[in-house]
Structure formats: structure tokens, C-alpha cells
């Protein structure tokens, strides 16, 4: 069974998240992400165009109108609208989603897509999804592409952020042995680095497709293991390269230096770690095993006699073709950039954007199929005028056709064949029998490698076909479960059994606006026909000049150059903050800025804008309100710890944060749990389990509103693609959304948590962090579960790493708030971009 769980629903969420999301430690140890740029840039107040008076050109070109539109708060209604879009499509569907998990609801959505291609041989579907998240399910997407009722391919799927040549070279470097290395006179070891560098020259001058053609099998295995988050793949790929060459070294052929028995034993210990590091595929095990098996030992002094220290295995000073250090190559530093879009477009007629991915947690209410987190989110359905449809289609095609970063399934098969991972599992099983009697450990490792190669020759294609067929069976199973165990049932105050009872464009759109869920009284907000702006964050220039140039990838962002770096969303936010402040000065009337975001750890620019809004002399009549997850309701715990550090520094810097100008609310887990228990009974009257977690990405700037996929944190600004809509001068719409927030307060679903941000000093704050970690450990019984006891040291190490990062956040925040102008790149943003 595939992993059906979203980020919010992984087993042991707190422990898993620490190991998954504290990527700083993992990537430091693996040396994939050692490029925290020491670059600076800060400002007290950014000068820019005011949206109340001037619409900048980058925004004007993305203006569109709608015939009908709805803000959708209820999960089932938002899913029903997506299904309606698919059913009413004429000839084309275009989709972009960060998460496209095959589970019950996504199987139902997939089936609707398959029905469209069956009905019309000319119907075409394009799906762009994220490489990092979805690679593990690659054969599901290949199965989906293979569904060809008319004998032609009608569904095409591509993956965002394919490995660049620098990443391929890194994989080669990590899996290259040094059997022919020369004896190094000064180090009394082997000049392994020189040998590797000579080998990597074969990539000089190659295009990306050409580089994929000349990759070694070992490098392909390494990449497959990396993207699948499978330590066995990473370790096996490295083992094949080093194991083969170590065999050569042991036999001392002509020209290869001899090594004594003690050195041989040391090498055997290294290889034993590779061989014994057989773990599952969860992210926390990757971090632990890679950290211990690869990085940890290679820091050790015992390897220096025959491996040139760290330089041999981790290419810190390895030069790329342009003479830059490979490990500072931005393509490696930004290897985990995601496409975080949420986007579906039918022809050029209807679209939906917002915060919801494609998985049960976004498309259901609490039920027996999804017992953990259910996300509270916000989407927007858009019945487009022709200009809007053309605009949406063009922005999709721009990203879809950005081949520098986008790979087809066939291209992935060339550089990271997931079938190799299946073969590794088979090879390990066979080798346990066939190779176990070989006494010499190095020869035994060589034997296991030969088993793998034999399997590749004998049945690779057949095994891949079997795996894809298994996905087809899972699809059918999940489809039936959604239809029979969710859609057809009317428990949990659910009166409907067909999705068109909730949303039907052919019969008046929204059919039922009184869905009971205990969270809010309003599930749907109609939008009048007004001017709307489609906004995106993408990895290329969005300026007027840049639109006429060939697409070239940009990395991160720089203050004052957001549009040139493709960060339109954050430029819109910046201008809207300024406009709200200026309106308060001009009218002397109260202005509210409200942030309703599941993940709140603001970028440096937003930090400075918040500080400006709380400045009595500049923005006397502005009130700032934040609604976000608490530590107990979020699926991304460290984000809350980071955000609290930031708010502590703001409280220290600006005392107006302790006045009525600032309000801060967090979701109340106890109340959310009671809503689930009392409103979502399971069969036989059993109370529902699990809870809700906020996932919305909404900001109200006075009478303007942003709704989309971009979080108020660093990843969304520095790394990921995102999209959304920005609507100006819609006081009635804003008032309707404010009613939803007021309802949350009235029902105590959110509570005043401003006092939780106030600390006399960092010592007091750190004491609270220690207490919070202890409570989390107790809640998840971390110290009681036997499978966690063996990883206690790793857990302690990871928590200490988080403390170090939090301390750096405090230092950079203090430095930032002393500066008067934001210019260039931000050290604070760079520090936390991997979260």
C-alpha cells in the first residue's frame, strides 16, 4: 500500500518532522546543502509603489475578470468544485499540485479524468507535480500515462525541479571509488580527488539530456535513493562504486599501492557500515543512517591514510566547469525547491486556486479513512472571462515548458530509475543466501553487487511493469473505498451522497451552503465580478524586460529585486503593507491588516513591514491581527518555534506589539478535538478521532485580500513556486471573511495567545522551549516506545540542532531590526530557506 498520508499525517509527526524538516543538519552532514550565503540586506521601510494609487506594470498584465467566483472554506465543497471543473471541461485540463497522493479522494478525482479521455479521443490532460514529494509514487504516474483507451497518449505528466548537471556530478562524486589513485607524498594517502575530478570532466560542455545519457549506474541509484528518501538506495549506490574499487585495492594490482592489515580492517569497517545500514524509507531513518554511515565516518581521522580526508568523499572545494566550488552551486543549495502551486484549469473557462493539495486531508471531513489531521483551508473557484482563461493557460505553459527544471517520466527513467530500488531489495534478499558463505567481507560486498547486475540483465522491464500494475490495483481499491465508504454514507451530519449536490456549474453552482462542521457558519463566500490579479512566484524573471528574454532560472530572492527573481506574490504583499499604512496616514481612519496563515515564520521583509505597522509615528491607525496554528495544532512544529523567536525580538524592539495595535490568536486544540468528537461520529455512534489543522494562506490588507498557496514563511519566499489571487477594493468580501474569523473567536476555536510571545529575555524563552519539547515528547510517548529508545541520542542531537538554529534566528533578527534599509539578499532568509 502506498503512503497515503500527507505531511500532516505522517506517523510520529513530531519526531518525524524534526528529522524531515531540520534539513539544515541533514544536508550539512550529507554536504548537499552547505551554502548558507553570508549575504546581508535589511530595511526599516521599503519605498515602492502604493497599490491604492498606482497599479504597477507587473500586476497590470495579470489582471482578469470573472463571471462567477466563490471562496470555498469547506473541504468537500472545494473537492466538489474541482470535480465539477473536470466534468465540464471541453478539450483540455491543466493541473499543478505540490502533493498528488493516490488515496481515496485522489483516486476518485483521477477516475473523473480517466472518464474524460475515454469519452473523447481528442481530450488532453497535463499534470505538473513536484519531483521531491511525488517521486516515491513515480510508477503510479507512469501507470496513469499508460491509460490509453484510444491507443494514443492523452495524459502527460511532468515533474518540477529535475536534477541539474551539478547534482548529477555530485551523485557521481559520491559513488566514485579510487582504485587507480596515485600515492600522495604529502598526505601519505591517495590522491583520490584528482582522479574523481578527471572522471567528472566528461560532463564539461554537455547539455542536461546529454549528461543524463552518460551517467553511471551507481550515480543513477544514488539519485533514485535520494529522491525516494530511501537510504538503501543511497548506500547501495555508494557501496557499488567503492566496493568494486576496494576489491581492486585489496588485490594490489600493478600500480596500486599496498595497504597493511590494519588499514584493510579500517576499510572493512567502513564497508560494513554500508552493508549493515539497512533501514526503512522514512525520512528520519535517512537522516540518522546517512549521518552516521556516510558523513560521520568520513569526518574521522582513520580514513586519511588512503582517502584524502573529507575532500575525497564530500567535495567541499571541488570545482565545477565554471571554476566555482561545486558545493556552493545554487542548483545544489536549492535542490529541494518545490512547485507549491495549487492549480486546476479547464480549457480557458474555469479554474481553482488556493491552499489545497490533492489528498484526503484536504478533501474530506474527519472519517475512518483519514483519522489524523484534516486541514482547514481556503480555495477560490473562478468562472473566467476570456482574458483570464488565456492568462492562466499562458502562465501554466510557461512553467510546464521550463525544461531546465521540468522532467518527463521518460527523462526521470534516464537519470533516476525507480526500478533500481526494487532491484536493490531483491538483490539484498538473494545476496543474504548466495554471498553469506564468502568469508572475506570485501569479496562478499562484490558478490552482492554482481547479484544486482545480474537482476538488471534478467528482468528489469518485467519488474517495472509489475509495479505499475500494482498501482492500477491500488487505484481501483481506493476508488471503491471513496465511493462506498465515504461518498455513499450520510453519517457525520452528511446528507449528500453525490458531489454535484454541493457544487454544480450547470445548475446554479453552489447547491448547499449550510454544511455543518462546527468550525464556521459560512462555507462559501460569493464574489462579484470585479478586477482580480493572478499572482505567482516562479523561478524566472517576471519584470517587463524579463518577459521578453529567454527563461533563465533564478535562485532565492533579493530585496528590491523581487519581480526580477520571480517573487510577484511577496512584492504584492510588500506593496499592500505600505498601502495600508499610507491609507491610515491619509484618512486618519482605522485600517486592519489580518494574516490568516497555517505557518507563520515571516521573511525579513514581512518582519520589517510588521515593525513599520506597529510604529505609532508612521502607522498610527493600523491594527495588525494574526491567526495561526498553535504548537499543538500544527504539523510543522519548528515553524512555530522560529516564529516565536522572531516575535520575541519584535516585542523587544517595538513596544507597540504589546498594545491594542497588535492581536495574536492561535487555534485551540482542545476545542478542535471536541468539534471532531461531537460533530463527526463514526459508524455505530463511535466518536470521531483526530483533529483539524489550519492550512489556509490568506491575508487581508484593509479592503484588499490575497488568497493562494504561499505561506507566510521563508520557503515560500526563497525556494518554492506558488500562486494565488489578489483582489483590490472589495470591502464586502473582506467583511464576509472577517465574519469567519470573528466566529472562530466567539466559539473559542482560536484564543488570544499574545502572552505566549512575551518573555523578559532569551533565557526565559529558551526555558519555555524546553518545556514545550518535553510536553511534545510526553504527548507522543517518545521515551516509552521501544523503537524510539534506540534513537534517543539521535533525537537529542536533532533537538539541540534546532536550538542552535533558533539561536541564530535571534541573532539575525536583532541585527536585521537595527538596519534602516533592505538591500540585496537577506542572511536571515537564507538561514531558514530549507524549512
Helix content: 40-55%
Query: Would you identify the CATH H-level superfamily of the largest domain?
Result: Endonuclease Chain A
Lateral strand order in the biggest sheet:
1-16-23-22-21-17-18-19-24
Q: Architecture of the largest domain in CATH?
A: 2-Layer Sandwich
Main structural class: alpha+beta
Q: How many separate helices?
A: 31
Distance between the amino and carboxyl termini: 28 Å
Shape: globular
CATH topology (fold) name of the largest domain: Endonuclease, Chain A
Which radius of gyration do the C-alpha atoms yield? Answer: 27 Å
Q: What's the CATH class label of the largest domain? A: Alpha Beta
Low-pLDDT stretches are 1-52, 181-190, 248-260, 266-320
Domain PLD phosphodiesterase: 335-362, 690-716
Protein name: PLD phosphodiesterase domain-containing protein
GO molecular function: catalytic activity
InterPro entries: PLipase_D/transphosphatidylase
Task: Please describe what this structure looks like.
InterPro entries: PLipase_D/transphosphatidylase. One of its GO terms (molecular function) is catalytic activity. Residues 335-362, 690-716 form the PLD phosphodiesterase domain. The chain has 835 residues and is an alpha+beta fold. The protein folds into three domains: 36-58 and 530-831, 2-Layer Sandwich (Endonuclease, Chain A), CATH 3.30.870; 69-162 and 338-414 and 469-485, Endonuclease, Chain A (2-Layer Sandwich), CATH 3.30.870; 165-334, no CATH class. Helix content is 46%, strand content 13%. The chain is globular. The two termini are 28 Å apart. Mean pLDDT is 81; it is low at 1-52, 181-190, 248-260 and 266-320.
Amino acid at each position: 500500500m502506498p503512503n497515503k498520508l500527507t505531511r500532516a499525517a505522517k506517523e510520529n509527526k513530531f519526531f518525524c518532522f524534526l528529522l524531515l524538516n531540520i534539513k539544515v543538519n541533514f544536508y550539512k552532514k550529507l554536504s548537499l546543502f552547505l551554502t548558507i550565503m553570508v549575504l546581508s540586506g535589511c530595511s526599516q521601510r521599503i519605498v515602492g509603489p502604493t497599490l491604492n494609487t498606482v497599479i504597477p506594470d507587473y500586476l497590470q498584465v495579470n489582471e482578469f475578470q470573472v463571471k462567477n467566483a466563490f471562496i470555498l472554506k469547506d473541504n468537500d465543497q472545494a473537492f466538489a468544485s474541482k470535480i465539477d471543473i473536470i466534468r465540464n471541461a471541453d478539450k483540455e485540463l491543466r493541473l499543478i499540485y505540490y502533493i498528488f497522493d493516490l488515496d481515496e479522494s485522489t483516486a476518485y478525482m483521477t477516475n473523473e479524468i480517466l472518464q474524460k479521455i475515454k469519452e473523447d479521443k481528442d481530450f488532453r490532460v497535463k499534470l505538473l507535480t513536484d519531483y521531491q514529494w511525488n517521486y516515491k509514487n513515480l510508477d503510479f504516474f507512469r501507470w496513469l500515462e499508460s491509460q490509453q483507451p484510444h491507443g494514443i497518449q492523452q495524459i502527460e505528466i511532468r515533474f518540477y525541479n529535475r536534477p541539474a548537471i551539478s547534482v548529477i556530478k555530485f551523485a557521481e562524486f559520491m559513488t566514485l571509488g579510487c582504485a587507480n589513485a596515485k600515492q600522495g607524498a604529502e598526505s601519505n594517502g591517495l590522491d583520490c580527488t584528482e582522479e574523481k575530478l578527471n572522471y567528472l570532466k566528461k560532463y564539461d560542455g554537455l547539455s542536461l539530456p546529454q549528461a543524463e545519457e552518460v551517467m553511471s549506474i551507481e550515480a543513477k541509484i544514488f539519485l533514485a535513493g535520494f529522491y525516494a528518501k530511501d537510504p538503501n538506495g543511497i548506500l547501495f549506490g555508494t557501496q557499488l562504486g567503492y566496493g568494486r574499487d576496494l576489491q581492486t585495492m585489496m588485490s594490489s594490482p600493478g600500480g596500486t599501492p599496498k595497504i597493511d592489515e590494519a588499514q584493510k580492517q579500517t576499510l572493512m569497517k567502513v564497508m560494513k557500515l554500508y552493508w549493515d545500514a539497512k533501514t526503512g524509507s522514512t525520512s528520519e531513518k535517512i537522516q540518522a543512517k546517512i549521518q552516521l554511515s556516510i558523513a560521520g565516518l568520513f569526518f574521522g581521522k582513520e580514513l586519511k591514510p588512503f582517502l584524502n580526508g573529507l575532500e575525497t568523499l564530500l567535495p567541499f572545494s571541488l570545482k565545477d566547469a565554471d571554476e566555482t566550488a561545486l558545493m556552493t552551486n545554487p542548483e545544489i543549495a536549492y535542490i529541494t525547491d518545490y512547485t507549491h502551486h495549487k492549480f486546476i484549469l479547464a480549457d480557458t473557462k474555469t479554474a481553482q486556486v488556493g491552499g489545497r493539495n490533492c489528498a484526503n486531508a484536504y478533501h474530506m471531513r474527519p472519517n475512518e479513512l483519514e483519522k489524523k489531521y484534516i486541514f482547514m483551508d481556503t480555495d477560490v473557484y473562478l468562472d473566467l472571462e476570456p482574458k483570464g482563461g488565456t492568462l492562466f493557460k499562458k502562465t501554466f505553459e510557461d512553467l510546464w515548458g521550463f525544461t531546465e527544471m521540468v522532467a518527463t517520466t521518460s527523462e526521470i527513467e534516464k537519470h533516476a530509475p525507480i526500478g533500481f530500488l526494487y532491484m536493490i531489495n531483491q538483490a539484498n534478499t538473494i545476496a543474504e543466501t548466495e554471498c553469506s558463505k564468502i568469508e572475506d567481507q570485501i569479496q562478499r560486498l562484490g558478490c552482492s553487487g554482481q547479484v544486482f547486475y545480474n537482476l538488471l540483465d534478467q528482468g528489469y522491464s518485467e519488474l517495472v511493469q509489475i509495479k505499475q500494475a500494482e498501482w492500477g490495483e491500488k487505484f481501483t481499491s481506493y476508488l471503491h473505498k471513496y465511493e462506498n465508504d465515504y461518498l455513499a454514507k450520510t453519517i457525520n451530519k452528511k446528507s449528500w451522497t453525490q458531489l454535484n449536490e454541493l457544487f454544480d456549474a450547470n445548475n446554479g453552482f453552489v447547491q448547499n451552503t449550510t454544511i455543518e462542521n462546527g468550525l464556521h457558519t459560512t462555507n462559501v463566500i460569493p464574489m462579484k465580478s470585479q478586477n482580480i490579479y493572478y499572482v505567482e512566484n516562479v523561478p524566472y524573471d517576471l519584470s517587463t524586460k524579463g518577459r521578453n528574454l529567454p527563461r533563465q532560472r533564478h535562485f532565492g530572492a533579493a530585496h528590491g529585486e523581487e519581480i526580477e527573481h520571480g517573487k510577484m506574490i511577496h512584492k504584492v504583499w510588500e506593496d499592500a503593507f505600505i498601502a495600508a499604512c499610507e491609507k491610515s496616514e491619509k484618512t486618519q481612519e482605522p485600517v486592519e491588516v489580518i494574516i490568516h496563515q497555517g505557518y507563520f515564520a515571516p521573511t525579513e521583509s514581512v518582519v520589517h513591514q510588521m515593525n513599520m505597522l506597529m510604529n505609532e509615528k508612521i502607522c498610527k491607525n493600523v491594527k495588525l491581527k494574526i491567526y495561526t496554528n498553535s504548537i499543538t495544532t500544527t504539523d510543522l512544529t519548528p515553524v512555530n518555534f522560529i516564529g516565536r523567536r522572531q516575535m520575541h525580538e519584535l516585542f523587544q524592539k517595538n513596544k507597540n506589539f504589546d498594545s491594542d495595535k497588535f492581536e495574536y490568536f492561535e487555534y485551540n486544540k482542545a476545542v478542535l478535538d471536541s468539534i471532531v468528537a461531537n460533530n463527526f461520529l463514526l459508524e455505530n455512534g463511535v466518536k470521531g478521532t483526530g483533529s483539524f489543522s489550519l492550512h489556509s494562506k490568506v491575508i487581508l490588507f484593509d479592503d484588499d485580500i490575497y488568497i493562494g498557496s504561499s505561506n507566510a514563511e521563508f520557503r515560500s519566499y526563497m525556494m518554492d513556486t506558488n500562486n494565488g489571487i489578489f483582489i483590490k477594493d472589495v470591502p464586502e468580501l473582506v467583511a464576509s471573511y472577517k465574519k469567519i474569523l470573528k466566529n472562530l473567536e466567539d466559539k473559542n476555536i482560536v484564543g488570544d495567545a499574545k502572552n505566549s510571545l512575551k518573555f523578559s529575555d532569551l533565557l526565559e524563552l529558551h526555558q519555555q522551549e524546553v518545556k514545550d519539547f518535553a510536553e511534545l515528547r510526553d504527548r507522543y510517548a517518545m521515551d516509552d516506545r521501544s523503537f524510539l529508545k534506540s534513537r534517543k541520542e539521535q533525537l537529542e542531537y536533532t533537538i539541540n540542532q534546532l536550538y542552535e538554529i533558533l539561536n541564530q534566528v535571534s541573532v539575525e533578527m536583532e541585527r536585521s531590526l537595527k538596519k534602516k534599509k533592505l538591500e540585496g539578499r537577506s542572511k536571515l532568509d537564507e538561514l531558514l530557506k530549507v524549512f
